[in-house]
Amino acid sequence: MQIKKDIIRNKLKEAGETEFFEKGFERSSVREIAGKAGTTLGNFYNYFKNKEELFHEVVKNEVIKFEEFFHGHQEEPTEYLIQSEREPAAFYRALDEFNDVLTSVFTRKFYIWVACSKGTQFSNSKDMVIRYIGEHFIGHVRDVGTMIPDLDNTAAMLSNGFLDGILYILGNHSDEKTVNDLIKNHLLFFFMGMIGLIEGFISEVAHD
Amino acid sequence: MQIKKDIIRNKLKEAGETEFFEKGFERSSVREIAGKAGTTLGNFYNYFKNKEELFHEVVKNEVIKFEEFFHGHQEEPTEYLIQSEREPAAFYRALDEFNDVLTSVFTRKFYIWVACSKGTQFSNSKDMVIRYIGEHFIGHVRDVGTMIPDLDNTAAMLSNGFLDGILYILGNHSDEKTVNDLIKNHLLFFFMGMIGLIEGFISEVAHD
Amino acid sequence: MQIKKDIIRNKLKEAGETEFFEKGFERSSVREIAGKAGTTLGNFYNYFKNKEELFHEVVKNEVIKFEEFFHGHQEEPTEYLIQSEREPAAFYRALDEFNDVLTSVFTRKFYIWVACSKGTQFSNSKDMVIRYIGEHFIGHVRDVGTMIPDLDNTAAMLSNGFLDGILYILGNHSDEKTVNDLIKNHLLFFFMGMIGLIEGFISEVAHD
Amino acid sequence: MQIKKDIIRNKLKEAGETEFFEKGFERSSVREIAGKAGTTLGNFYNYFKNKEELFHEVVKNEVIKFEEFFHGHQEEPTEYLIQSEREPAAFYRALDEFNDVLTSVFTRKFYIWVACSKGTQFSNSKDMVIRYIGEHFIGHVRDVGTMIPDLDNTAAMLSNGFLDGILYILGNHSDEKTVNDLIKNHLLFFFMGMIGLIEGFISEVAHD
DNA sequence: AATGAATGAGGGTTCATTCAT
DNA sequence: AATGAATGAACCCTCATTCAT
Fold first, then answer.
1. Does a structural domain hold residue D53?
2. Residue A86 backbone class (left: φ over 0; alpha: ψ -120 to 50; beta: rest)
3. pLDDT digits 0-9 by tens, D111-132
């Protein structure tokens, strides 16, 4: 019975994942999720307390993974930024080392967690992720030693840009290789933008 | 009486604007909008045919403004990009000329139009804006002469990134000066990123 | 002031007549009636207590006219039926004498009273008219002396058929001459049908 | 559970039938239908997609039955008309053969379909039925060889009269035998009227 | 007399959730 | 474990009527 239970449970999770991805949490219908999972509305509630619990179930590992990822890579050196400065192609190739981690963190479920969670307890996930990324970004900027005015807000904005790029890719492509390529492009773009921004402020300060 | 009517009408528009901004069109409740405006549900329909008409009313000027803006600046020269290449500070200062137009185009209502219009006749506004921006972007890249592989997709992605940055700023800040500063940062960042991306591809091609 | 009042009042009555004719009482909108009359919703209630009172006003003369007509012609001789028996053309020409009375009784307002009054105090007008006509019919049949089984029900049914024909004509034609011609055809048809019916029962009885 | 479902479903259909019969589709309230069926508004929508689907359910068999009936009897001979000409009693007795088909076609649901469907996809049912009957009627008249001026309009008017008679009977009587008797009377009346009308025109033409 | 804003009850419909079986 | 019927609150919208101006 436990086996059977797991089968249904997984089907519900998969159906939920699809539904949440397509419609977001609030517009997702429990009836439809149950239907797609090949079971019935009522039975849904034998497996999950409510729609939100299913969402939590779908997404919880991503949350953990993301947090581990970020805490783990917090102390990652800034040398990449410095080494490859002004050499986009080098930076671009260097990114290959991160393929695995990128692929494992930036998944469809990550997208759901961040972009489809309005109405759940994770409503603030995007802000949280942005904050994480922002702190990461601030760290690097500090390492580089540049003074950027209004650093916090700028960091938030850049983080948001970074994140939205990721979400855009995940929301519009499902093929793993395509996703990976696009994310690399995005990172290159983002990296170059940051370099430019930093230099921009350096030269501006020099100008004053 | 006419005065009173205008008061309520404006209150409804303001309440609608707030509601749409916070919840998006679909999740916005006419009852709540009416309540926030200090009147009753039924009375709402003495002022607006339906929820969508209120949305239209809130947003219609933005649509016009945006289209005028883009058609007006379509033929804008690429020289900025060329002149200020590698000189972020110059680019940054050059942006000051655009303060007024940026402030007048990228407003809270612009945000509502683009980011909160799901379920209205403006559902496609984001795609439309992205297409506009993408074409603009492609034009500049052509002027510069770089060959970027898969230009259309990349353009879409970048346009999306550009727009999402704007939307993020508008969605998280209301103070006009802050918005303006962040948008300028965003443009600088974006400009530098594009330069980097273009160079990246140039050098990568050179590598092959 | 009395003059002005009458003008608006009449416009409201005319607009109401049109609206009732087209949509029936219940689906008619007071707002629209007021609008068509060139005045405002609120002002409507300065002239009429409510929608129903307007209906009453539109229709009341018809009710009186109809009742007078029927009471006046109750004692009308059956000789027409007898004289013109089996001579449809004669009957047809004889009807010319009734042109005036037919035109004055079977009007658009008569139609409204009978066919558009659902939801008003006149809901039962159709039944009432049918009963009148039925009694008239029964009277003639009695004069002729035929025994028709289930006379009351049959009378009601025939009266209904008679009335529906009239209503069909009034509801689908507005040109006075056309209406008059069609009503004459209808009466001929109806007369012949009655003759046939009566004979049918005579012969059937004879058969038994 | 399936049984219970059927019970409620049938109750809803019966309540709907009654409600539609009494008030017509548009004035019928889903809330009231559900109430009469002993359940709640929300539950109604577990059985029917919307009010119109219930209407469709109530009425769909009638539509099919009617179309089959008319297509099946399209080629019915005119000999009845000819044989029994001038012999109402014969015609009357001949009708007995049709008792079954009349009873099965002209039902309460037929009434609902034709007379209570304003606002549904069946809005045009009355026109359709009239057209059917009119064509049938025209066919017979052609067989008889009479020239009736403005045949189409006259056919429409007569068909309408025929149908209204049927509808009147169905709308005012529920006892099956009464309905059947009245319909037979109606047919006799109608038949005799037609004969009279035809002769009327013949003699009138002869007069000219 | 005229205006139209305001109200409130009602319309159809959706949906997460509960519950009896 | 499974079913789907039942509930109730919420949704948008309409409209006759009242009322303050």
1. no
2. left
3. 999 999 999 999 999 999 988 8
